[in-house]
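User: Can you predict the 3D structure for this chain?
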Amino acid sequence: MYHEAQAYVVKKEGGPIIMTGGLFFNEDQDIPQMFAMFSNQAFENYILLTRGSKMLLEYLTGYHPKVSMTILADYEGMIKWVEWLGFETVGVSAVGENKYYEFIYCNLDKNCVYDEPQRPVIH
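Assistant: Here is the predicted structure, written as structure tokens:
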């Protein structure tokens, strides 16, 4: 994944890995996919997890103003998490029996707008 991803590991000093996250770059996509994997220890300090999530997203969107995510519908906690982070639902897809939600996040500080044709005209 070295050439395809920008990954970060969050861990307690001298302790276990709490989270791995970052961006995955697929040559077929214009917008990188954000990914996150949490260990069971991540949920022991929920406030730290939420603050860290915001910080990681702010860091990643400082370099890439548009970020996307795809989440299996079965993971309601993850869906609530990305909505809380500010991602917007832009689609639903099905692969076999599985349903996926497509999300996008735009860094408004970078004048990023998801749907460029609907961007307001400034005179």
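The helical segments are 46-63, 76-85. The first helix runs from residue 46 to 63.
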